[in-house]
Specification:
alpha+beta, eight-stranded mixed beta sheet, 17 strands, 27% strand, 10 helices, 28% helix, 2 domains, Aminopeptidase, Elongation Factor Tu (Ef-tu), domain 3
Length: 352
């Protein structure tokens, strides 16, 4: 991955953006993509929309959500300990003992998620996964009044886990789900910025995917695409305790994953495969029978329906503070989107 692109990815990761609070990362995304786009806008919902050749009649939309998991401060007890609601789907076994950042109006406040230590648990309690009401955030406050000097009800919270190389290609961070998708749709425009396009291309950093695919719904309503491709992460199934008879096979470093199934227009899926093979981009196939729980689902159902597809980036340890991706998979996903866009013409018919 070129250095400027890696810096952009790190900037996205370093900017907290729990669902509903994506504004800082959205600003970074818009500033980066501005030099590759004919137009850059944001809507009332918070989606960031960059367009190329926007006067063309046929419209292609790439959607990668920029929101991440988080927490929301909802109660401070008399001793100054902070209780929270979850933003998105969390594994309760992963939450305690983590450094976190509370995003307040005056800046970030450091804290640690806590629960009763294992030494103090009864034998029965040790067998149970803690409920959310048994978890809290400790900011070192001495009282409710002390905590309220810096933290307010409704402040969002994210894990304090940054970007780190494991190998030259494998990297770990919080929030690869799905800042790599937002990265890929921006990079696709970079790859296309010198090309003459036959269709309008819209790259969208969508919001609030983790709480219901909400940004894809509103942005697609505004753009009204003919073709819509969602870019998200998918489970790499190449680690222990996986039964590939149930999950299928997806390898980290094996290339972007192209969806086949009801949520993927077969002509779109076939063109993605053709684009990958034509540009010698490694790729993998994934079969899912029904609708998938990502932006591609909303794109397919937008308006009177679109020709939908999904390109996914393999990821290990999804929805944990330390996810792992391959930088080559991330970079190749952007190249695949650009290669697909160049193959769509005004006369390409995706109707079934």
């Amino acid at each position: 991955m070129r250095q400027a692109s890696l810096t952009f990815l790190k900037d996205l990761l370093n900017s907290p953006s729990p669902s509903g609070f994506e504004q800082p990362v959205a600003k970074i995304w818009r500033e980066y993509v501005r030099k590759f786009a004919d137009s850059v806008e944001q809507d009332y919902h918070g989606n960031s929309i960059a367009g190329r050749n926007t006067k063309a009649k046929k419209r292609l939309m790439f959607a990668g959500h920029c929101d991440e998991l988080g927490f929301l401060v909802h109660y401070i007890n008399e001793k100054g300990f902070i209780y929270f609601k979850t933003i998105g789907g969390h594994d309760r076994t992963m939450i305690s003992g983590r450094r976190v950042k509370i995003l307040t109006k005056d800046g970030e406040v450091a804290g640690v998620t806590g629960k009763k230590a294992i030494h103090l648990l009864t034998p029965e309690e040790r067998k149970k996964v803690p409920e959310f009401e048994n978890l809290w955030i400790d900011i070192g406050a001495t009282s409710k009044e002390d905590a309220e000097k810096s933290v307010s009800i409704g402040d969002p919270v994210v894990y304090d886990m940054g970007f780190q190389h494991i190998t030259n290609d494998l990297v770990t961070s919080r929030a690869f789900d799905n800042k790599v998708g937002a990265f890929a749709v921006a990079e696709a425009l970079r790859h296309l910025h010198k090309d003459t396009l036959d269709v309008a291309v819209y790259s969208v950093a969508t919001v609030q995917e983790e709480i219901g695919l909400r940004g894809a719904r509103t942005s697609a309503s505004g753009i009204a695409p003919d073709i819509g491709i969602g870019i998200d992460v998918t489970h790499a199934t190449d680690h222990p305790e996986i039964d590939m008879r149930k999950t299928g096979e997806v390898k980290l470093g094996g290339g972007p994953v192209i969806l086949r199934g009801a949520n993927a227009n077969p002509k779109v899926a076939a063109m993605l495969v053709k684009a990958a093979e034509g540009e010698q981009i490694p790729y993998q196939l994934q079969a899912i029978a029904g609708g998938i729980p990502s932006d591609a689902n909303e794109l397919q159902l937008a308006g009177s329906g679109t020709a939908a597809g999904a390109v996914s980036i393999p990821l290990r340890y999804m929805h944990t503070p330390s996810e792992i991706v391959s930088l080559s998979d991330v970079a190749n996903s952007a190249k695949l989107l650009a290669a697909f866009a160049k193959r769509v013409t005004a006369t390409t018919d995706f109707r079934l």
